[in-house]
Amino acid sequence: MADLKQRIEDLHDSLRNGRIMDAMREFYADDVVMTALAVGDGVTIYENVMDWIDVNDQSIHVEQVVVAKWRGGRIVHERFYYNMG
Length: 85
Description:
The protein is of the alpha+beta class. It folds into two domains: 1-30; 33-85, Nuclear Transport Factor 2, Chain: A (Roll). The chain is 27% helix and 44% strand. It has two helices and four strands. The chain has a four-stranded antiparallel sheet, with no helix packed on it. A hairpin with a 3-residue loop joins strand 1 (37-39) and strand 2. It is flat. The termini are far apart.
């Protein structure tokens, strides 16, 4: 676990210092998929990307992370962090 902690810290250090392409080569596998799902103690987190056409015929693209808090098998709080870029 300590090795993994160091790797994520090194990755973030590379990103903070603008070495994005170097970080991609060093830290990402050739067959990487960049959508994630995480499950913790009463919390789930997932990423998704959506594209659709709205009622005004406009193309919409949303990339978001959803954080949900669970109790008794049901969501009791949910927040969406998104980029409509």
